[in-house]
Structures are given as structure tokens and as C-alpha cells.
Design brief:
Elements lengths: L1 H13 L7 E4 L6 H7 L5 E4 L2 E3 L2 E5 L4 E4 L6 E3 L2 E5 L8 E3 L2 E3 L11 E4 L4 E3 L2 E3 L2 E2 L6 E4 L4 E3 L2 E3 L2 E2 L6 E4 L3 E4 L2 E3 L2 E2 L11 E2 L2 E4 L2 E3 L2 E4 L9 E4 L4 E3 L2 E3 L2 E4 L2 E2 L5 E5 L7 E3 L2 E3 L7 E5 L7 E2 L2 E3 L6 E2 L14 E3 L4 E4 L47 E3 L11 E7 L3 E9 L4 E11 L2 E7 L12 E9 L2 E9 L2
Parallel strand pairs: 1-2, 2-5, 3-6, 4-7, 5-8, 6-9, 7-10, 8-11, 9-12, 10-14, 11-15, 12-16, 13-17, 14-18, 15-19, 16-20, 17-21, 18-22, 19-23, 20-24, 21-25, 22-26, 23-27, 24-28, 25-29, 26-31, 27-32, 28-33, 31-34, 32-35, 33-36, 34-37
Antiparallel strand pairs: 29-30, 38-39, 40-41, 41-44, 42-43, 42-45, 45-46
Length: about 475
């Protein structure tokens, strides 16, 4: 992976004009911010591997801000502000692990974009807790591109756990949006994964949860406007929208649509196995103007559709993933998603009709050889089974190599219920544990949504589960 990163970085630097400079951190400049301050339009600020604790702001500069060896080895304990004076201001932020770790140094967002048209690419944006909207990425009046990032385990106490955008349409593509949460206050708790309008495509959106103590939360996976957004080829699995002791609005997708105008559409998406709040919820004035079709909607809590009817070419059948319990959402060769997407959309890379979902099945080789979603995972955390459960459930995971592991159960409010595993060195291979719905005192917990979080050598992943008595 590192060799591929260095090759791609070399290609980027080759595109830099001869008059532009490469400013090295910490070689020439002791901090990332010092390198940014010294840069001018066209420059590259190149950051060596290491851990940096600072607050960095790029203001109205068209520069490339990149790590030298990728997010696995370049960690920022802090946040980035990308502010442009106009929509023409373009900065590229690439290759960092931007890690909140509840650092409480004065920001509500790990990446805050205001104005301009920046590109946020190939980063890991994780582990932030915020009292404001957009714990992971907040976009304000910007035509940003959010591409090929892992945005995971961020928690907004109000709204917008993963990505929230206001104002101009944005492009959000080829990201993994996982384990983000929104809500803890009584009146707030919406839009855990993505809240935006624009182009939303090729994303894997899993195990995000929006919740309120009163009223009903909305949008566990995606919240968008049907009139002005093009949402296609996403895989939306295992998300939650809940509140007031009952179902929320749109565990997978929440759609708003008012009026007759607009050129948006929602097609070629897999919306399946969302755990609370139905599959898709339409807050729609007139469904005749909702351009919805060629989606697979299956196995969602309570109902697949609320507020409108399925599209004429929709599929309601098992998508047949390689192994959804271990998080592999690539398609089996007999999946109903293959060659059943909208024929008016671009062909898949193998020159066949578009498939449904984020990962196409490569028919040129006869099998899909690239089955692993991009990301620096050293382990695979499976969905608990059964889920929902009554008496007990099994939590399993697989380690690629020996590692220090913790596995904890949390309530929907973030309180620790039970440490199943606590800083234990475990060998590579498969591991599984049974939880019987008891807390650390041995007492049964109440019906509700719980989270289990796996920590492996400092990397964290979480999933939601439902206990029903």
C-alpha cells in the first residue's frame, strides 16, 4: 500500500509547475502551519511521517497539502480549517489521519471547509466528539469534493456525525462512512452519516446511528434533497434512526422533495439491512416528481419504503454480498445487482451495464478479485448475530496479525456497559464472544440500541446492535 501511495504522490508532484516549490515539514519548517504560512499558490507542503498536535488553517491559498507516505503513518491530533475568499480558491488536503481523540482544543469539526472549492482526498477522519453540527467534516457554502476518505467513529451531540454540508452542492464519492453518530440531547440527533446535496456516489455507508431522547431522529445513512441531488451507486447497510422509544425517519435514507423543479435522481443504490427507522423515508410533497428507480431495497427494519412507492425497476431481494457479516459488501456472481442498474448511467469499468451498489462485479475476469474495500484495516469486525437479539448474541472478528485488543459494549448515550475484552494481546485469526445482555455488575440491561467497539492497536471500529426482550 505504501509503494502505491508513493507512486501516486510522485504523479501528483510531477504535475506541479516548474516554478512551484516543495516545502518540507519538519525538515524546513517545524510545523505544518509554518509550512502553510510560507507557501504561495501552486506550492506543495509535504509532511513527513509522524504525529503532529496542532491546529492548521489554509486561508485562500491554492496549494497541495499532503503527507509523504499516507494516513497510516501521518497523524494529526487536531483539525484543519480550509477557508477560501471565493469559490475559485482551491486547496488539496491529502493523506492524513486526522484524529480527534476528544482533544477539546477549540474546534467542533476535524475538517471545516468555508467557501472555496477544496479537494479532501485519501484521509482518515476519525474519533471526534463535538457539540456542534459536523463532527467529522463540516462544509459551509463551498463546492468541495470529498473523495476516497475513511470517515469513521465521529460523534456529534447534535447533528451531522460524519459529513454535513450547507449551501452549494458538493461531490461526495468513493468514501467509507462508518460508525458515526448524531445525537445525545433531547431535541437533536439527526443525519449521522451524510447530510448534503449534490453528487453522492460510490460510497459505502455502514453502521451510522442517529438518535434522540424525545421525538424521532432522521437519516441514519444519508439525508438529501431529491430535487437537486444525484445519488447513485452507494451501498447503505446497517444504519439506525431512532428516538422516543420507537422508530425514526429513514434508517438508511431520508429524502426531502418539494416542488416540481429539479434534475436530481436516486438510482443504483443498495439500501439493505438497516436496523432501525425503515429503509428509506420520503418527506415528499408529490412523489410524481421523485426520480427514484433501479435501487435494491431489502431486509430493512419495519418497512423498506415509507412515503412513496418503489420505482418500476426496483429490486426487493437479497443483494447476495460476499460476506455481509464480516463487512465484505462486494457482490457474489449470482447477485441480482449485476447488470440491473440504470442503462442510461455510464457502463461499469468492465464495459458491462451498470451494477447496483458501490462495488461492481468484474465480469472481465469471471470473478471479482478486488473484494476488499479500500482502507488501512488490520482487522475485520463482523455484524453481531443474531441481530436484533433476545437472550444472547455473538460478536466476532478476525485479526490479520497478533495485536492488542479491546472489545467494549456501550449504551446509546455512550456509557460503558461491559468490557468484553480489555487490552488483551491476541493471536491472528478468528475470535468470537457472546454477550448475554448484562452489564459489568451482571444485571440485565433494558431493551434498546447498543454499540460494540473494537480497538486494535489504536484503530477503532464500531457497529450497532438491538436488544429486544
Amino acid at each position: 500500500m505504501r509503494s502505491l501511495w508513493i507512486l501516486s504522490l510522485g504523479l501528483l508532484l510531477a504535475l506541479v509547475s516548474a516554478s512551484a516549490r516543495i516545502l518540507n515539514v519538519p525538515g524546513e519548517y517545524t510545523t505544518i502551519q509554518a509550512g502553510i504560512n510560507a507557501s504561495i499558490n501552486g506550492d506543495t507542503v509535504l509532511v513527513a511521517p509522524g504525529e503532529y498536535t496542532e491546529i492548521d488553517t489554509v486561508q485562500d491559498k491554492n496549494i497541495l497539502l499532503t503527507s509523504a507516505q499516507g494516513p497510516e503513518s501521518t497523524v494529526l491530533h487536531g483539525y484543519f480549517n480550509l477557508w477560501g475568499a471565493s469559490i475559485d480558491s482551491t486547496c488539496i488536503l491529502r493523506g492524513f489521519d486526522i484524529n480527534g481523540n476528544n482533544i477539546n482544543i477549540g474546534s467542533d469539526h476535524l475538517v471545516y471547509i468555508r467557501y472555496g472549492s477544496p479537494i479532501i482526498s485519501a484521509n482518515i477522519i476519525e474519533d471526534n466528539s463535538s457539540e456542534s453540527w459536523g463532527a467529522g467534516v463540516k462544509i459551509d457554502t463551498s463546492m468541495a469534493i470529498i473523495r476516497s476518505n475513511i470517515i469513521r467513529d465521529n460523534w456529534s451531540y447534535t447533528q451531522g456525525g460524519g459529513i454535513v454540508s450547507f449551501g452549494y452542492p458538493v461531490i461526495i464519492e468513493a468514501n467509507i462512512i462508518s460508525g458515526n453518530r448524531a445525537g445525545s440531547l433531547p431535541e437533536f440527533g439527526d443525519e449521522a452519516g451524510i447530510s448534503a446535496r449534490g453528487i453522492i456516489r460510490y460510497n459505502l455507508i455502514t453502521n451510522n446511528a442517529a438518535m434522540r431522547m424525545i421525538y424521532h431522529a432522521r437519516a441514519g445513512g444519508i439525508s438529501t434533497s431529491a430535487n437537486s441531488s444525484k445519488v447513485y451507486n452507494n451501498t447503505i447497510i446497517g444504519n439506525v434512526a431512532a428516538g422516543d422509544g420507537g422508530h425514526g425517519y429513514g434508517g438508511g435514507v431520508y429524502i426531502s422533495s418539494y416542488g416540481q423543479n429539479g434534475t436530481g435522481f436516486i438510482k443504483n443504490n443498495i439500501i439493505a439491512y438497516n436496523l432501525h427507522g425503515n429503509g428509506v423515508w420520503g418527506d415528499i410533497a408529490d412523489s410524481a416528481y421523485l426520480n427514484w428507480d433501479y435501487n435494491l431495497v431489502f431486509g430493512n427494519d419495519s418497512a423498506n419504503y415509507v412515503g412513496f412507492l418503489p420505482g418500476p425497476h426496483d429490486i426487493q431481494a437479497d443483494p447476495l454480498f460476499i460476506d455481509r457479516f464480516s463487512g465484505d459488501y462486494h457482490l457474489l456472481s449470482n447477485s441480482p445487482c449485476i447488470d440491473t442498474g440504470d442503462p442510461s448511467l455510464p457502463l461499469d469499468p468492465d464495459s458491462t451495464r451498470s451494477d447496483i451498489g458501490a462495488y461492481f462485479f468484474d465480469q472481465s475476469m469471471g470473478i471479482d478479485e478486488d473484494r476488499t474495500p479500500p482502507g488501512p484495516y488490520q482487522f475485520t469486525l463482523s455484524q453481531n448475530y443474531p441481530n436484533p437479539f433476545n437472550a444472547q448474541t455473538i460478536i466476532s472478528y478476525n485479526l490479520d496479525k497478533e495485536a492488542t485488543v479491546s472489545l467494549h459494549i456501550y449504551s446509546i448515550m455512550g456509557h460503558l456497559i461491559l468490557p468484553l475484552v480489555n487490552k488483551e494481546v491476541q493471536k491472528e485469526g478468528a475470535h468470537k464472544y457472546t454477550w448475554e445482555g448484562r452489564d459489568y455488575k451482571g444485571q440485565m440491561v433494558s431493551t434498546g440500541i447498543y454499540f460494540y467497539e473494537l480497538y486494535v492497536n489504536g484503530i477503532r471500529e464500531s457497529k450497532a446492535m438491538i436488544l429486544m426482550k
